[in-house]
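Re: that backbone. Tokens:
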């Protein structure tokens, strides 16, 4: 199983703006500005205050029209053993596809 598949197979949970684990990811009623989602193991490892901070950051930036909002530092998700989270990602110019790093292409940091 590839690293991306392991990333996707984690149980993702929705975090509400009060810092509570509110259910499955993708069940937010507000479709234009959804709640923050984290893997269940990461969500449980954070304090309620840390979950609240990352969820409120997502809501605040989402209300400004942003669709991708970076997690707060304690809520950053990393795969064990390196994986995609620590590896430099390279994007082939023009296609927008993330490709394997051993292939020759332009690197963006």
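Recovered sequence:
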């Amino acid at each position: 199983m590839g690293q991306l598949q392991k990333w996707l197979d984690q149980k993702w949970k929705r975090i509400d703006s009060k810092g509570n684990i509110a259910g499955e990811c993708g069940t937010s009623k507000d479709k234009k500005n959804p709640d923050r989602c984290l893997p269940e193991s990461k969500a449980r490892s954070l304090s309620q205050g840390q979950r609240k901070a990352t969820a409120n950051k997502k809501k605040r930036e989402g209300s400004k029209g942003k669709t991708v909002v970076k997690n707060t530092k304690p809520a950053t998700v990393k795969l064990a053993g390196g994986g995609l989270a620590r590896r430099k990602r390279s994007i082939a110019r023009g296609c927008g596809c993330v490709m394997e790093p051993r292939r020759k292409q332009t690197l963006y940091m």
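The chain has a mean pLDDT of 80. Helices lie at 3-8, 40-45, 48-63, 83-86.
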